[in-house]
Amino acid sequence: MTRLNELTIAAARDGLAKGEFSARELAEAHIAAMESARRLNLFITETPERALAMADAADARRRRGEAGLLDGIPLAVKDLFCTEDVLTTAGSHILDGFHPPYESTVTANLWRAGAVLLGKTNLDEFAMGSSNMTSHYGPVESPWRRKGDNRPLVPGGSSGGSAAAVAARVTAGAIGTDTGGSIRQPAAFCGIVGMKPTYGRCSRWGIVAFASSLDQAGPLTRTVRDAAIMLRAMAGHDPRDSTSVDRPVPDYEAALSGDIRGLRVGIPKEYRVDGMPDEIEALWRRGVQWLEEAGATTIEVSLPHTKYALPTYYIIAPAEASSNLARYDGVRYGLRVPGRTPTEMYEATRGEGFGAEVKRRVLIGTYVLSAGYYDAYYNKARKVRALILRDFTEAFESVDVLLTPTAPSTAFAQGEKMDDPIAMYLNDVFTVPANLSGLPGISVPAAMAEDGLPLGLQVIGRAFDEETMLRVAHVIETAAGFDAEPAFVAGR
Fold this sequence. Notes:
Largest sheet: 11 strands, mixed
Structural class: alpha/beta
Helix content: 25-40%
CATH topology of the domain at 4-257 and 441-490: Amidase signature (AS) enzymes
Strand order of the largest sheet: 1-3-2-4-6-5-10-11-9-7-8
Low-confidence stretches: none
Mean pLDDT: 96
Distance between the termini: 15 Å
Order of helices and strands: HHEHEHEHEHEEHEHEHHHHEHHEEHH
Shape: globular
């Protein structure tokens, strides 16, 4: 019999509806799983009492016939989302002790749909990283292991705690944010589904900002169907967010028809990068074959400015970060390190409160925005970003979605690449273009590599056409039949 903490969101929803178990029993099973997984360092803050109270409320609503879309479903929240009266740190020392007096729009939408909060997951500090090694609260350990190698692996980042918690069967689903691949890359590393919706589909209000023109909230789940269910609950227009788009929220689950006959799938030739492992190239070809066998047509397309995406991103994102992080000064909330003057206090607070990677990006961002360098770097990057978006716009004149790998490698060991920021940044080579363009993207677990770790395929869709993207992703998921479990789950 399947343990309650191993149910997908869809299966848990159906079991609750049939009365096979209660929301409280479901919450208790996930709380026990959370406690047994503490060595993975998945959570910064656990909220078991709140989870049980929310589960009891869900059971009461169900008895009254008032159950919502996610009533009784246990979820984990990346500690970048403000949660009222619950510690919110962004993985940083500088936000120690910050208990927001308000709720982010996305989490408020989830609680309105009846979801249950298990806790706040660990992340790279201020979402800056691809490994979940930069958190002030220590690294997250992946539940996976390489074949014949017991070294702890990274779960990817920055939403590594959320991804690893889903993979470890600690939570039915989780939410993260994706600025340059921070949902999709850890999803690929952890063998789960990770989705970045179109920029503006989910409100950014109440999310601790990294790069405001790139950040977007999204779900991390075990299946494409679960991602569709969660996105419907998360999305919607928010007048408090000027970038939130006022469009109807479709029933994404209804889009999973399994029928992609006649769809045109673009294969970007520029995504074949030097040094990409043969097995990732082979999986990409297999993905093409799966879609063709399902009735789609594949077409090679060109995105010529793709090669400039990473350098463009690593100018724009740090520039926006340097502006956003200027608010952390020790005056209003979080850490305060005393000084003889306000300036000394600011310097001491930021010096002690920010980690090395955050300082690196703030310094880069301040430099590219400074007088004499703004036009040479930041303004030029903005122009290249427009060209990258134009490439996608032209490609989508002839295709409906794009198919690419998600990451250029499988998960690496903790400590690897940490002394080489450029090697770390290259983890985002396939994911960054969708952020620069504001397009939706989803990673689907599709195969196991020779080293015994998961590999993902990415589908990129047109703006606000998540339905078609999800439909294609569902077909890939069905064809791949990925059912591997992490070593942690198998040995629990």
